[in-house]
TrEMBL record, chains A, B:
Cofactor(s) required, per the database record: Cu cation
Record has Metal-binding as a keyword: yes
Domain Copper amine oxidase catalytic: 183-597
Domain of life where this protein originates: Eukaryota
GO biological process assignments: amine metabolic process
Source organism per UniProt: Linum tenue
Name used for this protein in its record: Amine oxidase
Oxidoreductase listed as a keyword: yes
Amino acid sequence: MTIDEPDKLRVLGWQSGDPLLPRKAFVIGLLDNQSHLVTIDLESGRVETHEISSGSGYPMLTMEDVAAAVDAAVSYPGLEVSAAARGLSVANLSCISPSPGWFGPEEEGKRLLKVLCYSKQGTPNFYMRPLEGLVMTVDVDRREVIKFSDTGRGIPIPGGANTDYRFHPGNDPPEMNPINPISMEQPQGPSFTVTDGHLVEWANWEFHLKADQRAGFIVSRVVVRDSETGDRRSVMYKGFPSELFVPYMDVDEAWYFKSYMDAGEFGMGATAMPLVPLNDCPRNAHYMDGVFVSADGRPFIQPNMICLFERYAGDSAWRHTELTVSAELREARAKVTLVARMASSVGNYDYTIDWEFQTDGLIKITVALSGMLMVKATVHDNMNQIENQEETGPMVSENVIGVVHDHFITFHLDMDVDGPNNTFVKVNLVKEENLEGKTPRKSYLKPVRHVAKTEEDARVKLSLYNPSEFHVVNPSRRSRLGNPSGYKVVPEANAASLLDHSDPPQLRSAFTNNQIWVTPYNRSEQWAGGLLTYQSHGDDTLDVWSHRNREIEDKDVVLWYTLGFHHVPCQEDFPIMPTVAASFQLKPVNFFDRNPILRAHPVFEKDLPVCRPSESASAM
Amino acid sequence: MTIDEPDKLRVLGWQSGDPLLPRKAFVIGLLDNQSHLVTIDLESGRVETHEISSGSGYPMLTMEDVAAAVDAAVSYPGLEVSAAARGLSVANLSCISPSPGWFGPEEEGKRLLKVLCYSKQGTPNFYMRPLEGLVMTVDVDRREVIKFSDTGRGIPIPGGANTDYRFHPGNDPPEMNPINPISMEQPQGPSFTVTDGHLVEWANWEFHLKADQRAGFIVSRVVVRDSETGDRRSVMYKGFPSELFVPYMDVDEAWYFKSYMDAGEFGMGATAMPLVPLNDCPRNAHYMDGVFVSADGRPFIQPNMICLFERYAGDSAWRHTELTVSAELREARAKVTLVARMASSVGNYDYTIDWEFQTDGLIKITVALSGMLMVKATVHDNMNQIENQEETGPMVSENVIGVVHDHFITFHLDMDVDGPNNTFVKVNLVKEENLEGKTPRKSYLKPVRHVAKTEEDARVKLSLYNPSEFHVVNPSRRSRLGNPSGYKVVPEANAASLLDHSDPPQLRSAFTNNQIWVTPYNRSEQWAGGLLTYQSHGDDTLDVWSHRNREIEDKDVVLWYTLGFHHVPCQEDFPIMPTVAASFQLKPVNFFDRNPILRAHPVFEKDLPVCRPSESASAM
């Protein structure tokens, strides 16, 4: 259940003081194996629309579904036998329920989960102790194991030594070279305000921030104040991680199906737990709760799910120094940003998602990965026993293979640069040659603007040797100089999916076939893997929508960007992986008339906090 | 003049208490247009070797060369005429002396500089007020203008309104939405020590840090302490920015030559000025001086050229949360890093270079760009006057074109992973197909290790759709599991040079033909564009060396990585550009037996500083 958003134009037209727009709920219900899509007017309490989905896929899994599947699996008699064959009882196991993907007709007509079990003996980090080759396919609605497969009885359960990652106060040895306490301090408090629990105002920015059970959190109505005029100018209507795709590169019976679409299957918000103060977010962070809905429709609170903080990381926002005849110029301005953060733990993996706002108009979106590898047990305990690289990943501990996998996170970015109607422009850097005689040079790069007329023009595979900038501009809003107002999406590190387009996981996650797409705004096209993602067949993806090849010039458009990671594990990822992060940016391009932070003031010593060590730290 | 480094093996063999190795100086002298390469034993004061360079190129330019060229240009009679034609006198001008590149035989046998002039009337930011089309070619040694070209008398000098970037205390208007004071605080002081002015020890790291007139700074003898054994383990012998390449994409008479190689031409250290406290570096920074040599051989001090500080940016080093039947697990560890930083102002542009050390063994190297665009004046003051995109960049202010250009920074990384002899291994992610019948999957990625035998195997053009990891491993040092100890270079955002390989600028900077190269260690191969870079013909580049195709397996190897930026300017870059940064990483891969920060302690409130607002801030 979620809000049934009012029509975008009505939202944009609404002003403070106007009567509230009708409040409606959107409910996805499951009844007799059918997905019901229902909108309800909350004022009248009446059903407004009711549709039964005719496409593939089921609603997001609930905690109850997961619990039911695990319950069915652990009470299945074969499990006791398999556990005993490995010297364990079922009570020693911790079982999890990954989604099954979708691999063909025999999986239709029922909701399935795969259940995998691990030994929890001696460690809270059971993920490092798989019962390899054991996989139970559970019919979630019938609460029944419909397939039991155990091909791994000869494979030992990895030992699990040194896998406990918890801090044990008083018992853990002192650190080898402890770092003196360091902290981001802001004793006058934060410079942002949060109104009505969701409207954030900071420096030149204003936006709405809302926890969402599926997306994690949604940033909307992003507005920046013009540095010259003070005018509030629209940048984005709505942005959020629309879908994930995490295919594992192992085709064994117990592995082939691992191709998660975590937002639509489990929910990035549903799996987000309270952030850990001082360690997930700094001391000056403000925390916000999520209000979610349980399977029976009752609301519940996910506390401290989002944190919001100002960051000063010691960098400069601009600088120049120069020694001239008359003077020494040394000018620099410290960079302070605002970060909105949440962290989802989708089973073993942790995804931390940041939206970072800079005073120069740039928005940086970062996805950081940590948590536990999904590992495979092997009979081998040394690489010298492994011939022909036949394992599907490197050995990361005795009997433990870190299976190679990818992560893709696709963002829905409904850009409204100075208004809804925008145009996507590729600025290609084209090599000009054949300059004979005119110049001693033989080549140079020329920026050539290419306006995307239809969706096809806006499908982009990034290439180092065919570089472009990717602008979303408002052709009706020209600067003093005649440049269209714009924002560009700036890729940084990235990875592409290389799977066959006909491979079922890739077909379902075909939104990763390109890194960039632009579609015309369509209220129903929010979720890149389809509204009903779980066990979907790939009939409602961004790729399908884009192939309608609609016109997108000077229209209300949505930009989609996919951030990818290839992960070849290594020993350092065991038993918990150091954070790996990648980012992309949304950056003003001829949006402001000039550098909007030209007039920022430098930092002076006299304004900075006065600090002393804590008594505890002094005593150390 | 610089240190003539002792033989690497003698350095590695030296231990504290041993007699010092012989101290020698390496002098590059210019006499009668010839470059003399001289080594001098400092103990005996005797010349040890003396060679006259037979290759192309001249030594790095000195401040005296630059001053001489500008002096010759401003006293050239034609300049007064050109200035007068624009309503100015020579006293109103500020002239700079970019390097001329090298474009053929007629430029041989003399040292040249191009002198360009700007109006400094009304602004310290003269870069925004070019006398377009005016270029003087100066013979530096004869102190004589040998070519005077003024093709731009009809082009107005841009007005320069709002280009002053200085802070004027008391006169500048208050900021629109000031941010409450925020600071990185560490009242017990830093956790690092600096011994003998250059040996840095922090957490598990130990390295030498030295200012260098050409490279900016050099990081050497990088050692990390093993998290299990406490052993000191070598990671890198020496790392530094070896050369830059900054080609402009305009082939006009006054522009074609702009293809700077800033390290070898002007020196990244020679152009580094004192960092601005609290704005370039945070309050807890420690500053280090550079000791350089002037043209006459006398030493001088470049104060506060390097800063070193611990950073806490509010991020976590690892995290996992989980709700299990028995307990709620919420574990996260705050990330604190050590940053070494310098900033060079090579004329208009500012390059800030960071080496950031993480406790998990990762080294992140970042180049940040700020400062002023090199702009071109135009008769147009609105984009609607410009047809067919005929300008060489976007209009960024009235009559000002921001010419498109690239920046490449090539790092010399003499990796010594657990010792000098290392092997470069590409771990290619190869798509496996044709799995019919064996699995419901149709494809997966398999990591395939490819050992580079010779230099040719190690020339890498990055490609999103042909992904690899790039490992430097020590084949003789295996982990408990049999994996070779290694570090990988991890690219992030990057850009490639697309110029013709035969274009003179590209020929001279052929080290940018690939993003990664590996060469066998050779004491004389330090500077990717050649030892004598200024006016070089490209006969002594990394590309030339690599094409000897030497063996590199299990040898002492040097890794070269090039970080690139395409810069299509925009209005926001005027009159000073907000910082743009890109990074790459050196990351342990099976170097540690497990996550080396598994046992890091969390941060507790009781240990953090106690802070109050300053009196100045409270009064605001």
